[in-house]
Design brief:
This protein is mainly alpha-helical. The protein contains 6 helices and no strands. The structure holds zinc ion.
């Protein structure tokens, strides 16, 4: 997923500076946000864009005001295959919370799986 230019140019440098100002390593920041260190590194090196949910925690931990014109974050609505188990996995891979349809599909799969094992 390409990093939106507005995010890369205006916001990312502020977040990286704020992390240094707070004396936080990528690892400590990751722990506070609840993601892996690799994820924080991929955000800071522009390889990935956080979901809005994760971005809010990122800003919050660093006391940076969250910019409310959030159109540069990936849509949280999700991929075309929503409502399927692979849709659920796509959310996970994109570091997004799964939508209701995908959660339902995953839960149905897990129920069927557990029934099948008994
Ligand atoms: Zn979905």
């Amino acid at each position: 997923m390409p990093v939106p230019p507005k995010f890369a140019q205006n916001v990312l440098p502020r977040l990286i500076k704020a992390r240094a100002a707070h004396g936080l390593s990528q690892r400590l920041l990751a722990l506070r946000i609840g993601v892996s260190e690799v994820t924080v590194r991929s955000w800071e090196t522009r390889r990935r864009t956080p979901s809005e949910d994760k971005a809010r925690r990122w800003f919050g931990e660093l006391s940076v005001p969250f910019p409310e014109d959030t159109d540069w974050f990936p849509p949280t609505k999700g991929p075309a295959q929503c409502g399927t188990r692979s849709g659920y996995q796509v959310h996970g891979a994109a570091d997004q919370p799964a939508c209701q349809a995908c959660n339902d599909a995953q839960n149905a799969y897990m129920r069927a799986y557990r029934r099948g094992r008994r």
